[in-house]
Amino acid sequence: MLIATEALSKHYGVVAALDDFSFAVERGEILGLLGPNGAGKTTLLRLLLGYLKPTAGRARIDGLDCYRQSVEVHRRLTYLPGEARFTRRLTGRDTLEFLAALRQESSVERAVKIADRLQLDLSRRVGEMSTGMRQKLGLAAALAPDVPLLVLDEPTENLDPTVRGDVLELVRESRAAGRTVLFSSHVLSEVEESCDRAVLLKDGRLVDSVRVSEVRRQHRIRARLTGPLQPAPPELATGLKVTELPSGETQILTPGDLAPLLGWLSQQPLAELQIEPVGLRTVYARHHGQEGGA
Amino acid sequence: MNGVLVKRGLRDAAGMLIACCALMCGFVWFRGWVSSKIEFSALASLLTDAFGSFLKLLPVPIDQLASPLGRMAFSFEEGPVVLVTGLWAIARGTDVIAGQQGAGTMEMLLAQPLRRITVVTSHLIVTLLGAAAIVSAAWIGTGLGLLVIDMQDEPAWRQFWPAVVNLGGLLVCVAGISTLASALARTRTQAVALVIGFYVIELAFMILGRLVPETHGESFTFLTAYDPTRLTLALAEGGAEAASLFIKYNVVLVGLGAGCWAIAAAIFCRRDVPAPL
């Protein structure tokens, strides 16, 4: 495990920003943190970075205590906050050079290459850059160092759709290069597109953890029947969740591939049939109602 | 200390530092020239007759102040010198924690493999180098002032070293207090307000102490230890008492500044780093 937390908590008086949070991230994994504002995503990231002292529990990265050994931890990660801010009078290039000089693992050439790919004008002063441009600069700075962990807090928040795509591509490339990525986002489609696993937070607590590939394989079948539903063969029945809805419809949740079920479904007394992939939206809605992002 | 941070800090502060040095040097030079043009013995008797009670506010008796050395040394207590000192020390001190945190740059800095103490120490090095440059500018200004004036019993520029050192002590002290305010405050504006509020209270104690000595107001303010005119005159005359006073005053200023800085560093190293506003 590269990241592991044990009963990690951060309280501000009676308010629990993060409560009893235990999770682990494997090396080479892209993990998405999902949850509405105030769910505790940023608090969790700030605890991992050692910016906050845990009220209880512990967080470790590569076996190192995130609070007490934060310098060693920071040698193993780069971080991009939700809104990257840099010294306003520096140019983009000066900023990348400055940040690269602060860590041995970095390279200005690599940072410039990424900035070029994100179509960022590095000759411009930070004070003259838009929020989106500053975020691109932050991404170039964060992606350049050769470190095992990348922590991104809503990295695409202020970016246009084209650059969002580039960012997600860069994240996937980072994973392909063997890095681990911890990625917080409001945008479900981004997490679904780029993450291996998603962790859902609500009111500072971990409420669900799902493998994105498994969620993608799950389907929801809604059927209006003209007669009783015949029991599924035993080899298919495992994991099927059949529910009678108040509307009179029958809902069947499939745990995996849909294909083997189709034969059995065709033998049922169907008046109407609707099949849709479950997706993260459904998982998210299970915990947060209809608050989910795009 | 981190060399990259110090170099970056010097580049970032260069504009303000050059302006502060130019102002300091220019004012002290100009002030020296002005003091050579005024007949101080006449002014002294006028002040004694008209504002007798306010003479208590002066750092030394009026006849000593009217001497060429006293006149020139008193320029280190003039408003513009204190203003430039405050500008550099407060601007730097309040920037280190609250300023960088509010601007969001602290968050990016601390994401690098840097200890928090390294960040504040590197900032302090730049502040101290700037303070050294400013006091040097004041000394150079004094020297230049002496070059352009024609005074009886003209002092040598070397005689002003006690005032220069005392000014350096004041810079260290105010920078330390400002750094502590920066560690305590949530925003830089709050930190500046804290320092100015504290300074005004200290100034009030000093005025009270000088006007009504029975109140012992001067015992409650660090400003008592900033007394460049008295120290310059006393050390020019020599004697163990003058040397002891010089050491005492500067130890108070540097000690207070260093103490405040150490507390600020301890607070910053242990506290949470909140998300920028």
Q: What labels would you give this structure?
A:
heterodimer; A: 294 residues; alpha/beta; Rossmann fold; 2 domains; 6-stranded mixed beta sheet; 11 helices; 14 strands; elongated; B: 277 residues; mainly alpha; 0% strand; globular
Plain-language structure description:
The complex is a heterodimer of chains A (294) and B (277). With 294 residues, chain A is an alpha/beta fold. Chain A has helices spanning 41-48, 70-74, 92-101, 108-117, 131-143, 161-176, 188-194, 212-217, 234-237, 259-266, 279-288; strands spanning 3-12, 15-25, 30-34, 56-61, 64-65, 77-80, 149-153, 180-185, 197-202, 205-211, 219-225, 241-244, 250-254, 270-277. In chain A, helix 6 links the parallel strand 7 and strand 8 (180-185). The mean pLDDT of chain A is 88. Chain B has one domain (3-270). Chain B is built from eleven helices and no strands. Classes of the chains: A alpha/beta (294), B mainly alpha (277). Chains A and B meet through helix 2 and helix 3 of A and helix 1 and helix 6 of B.
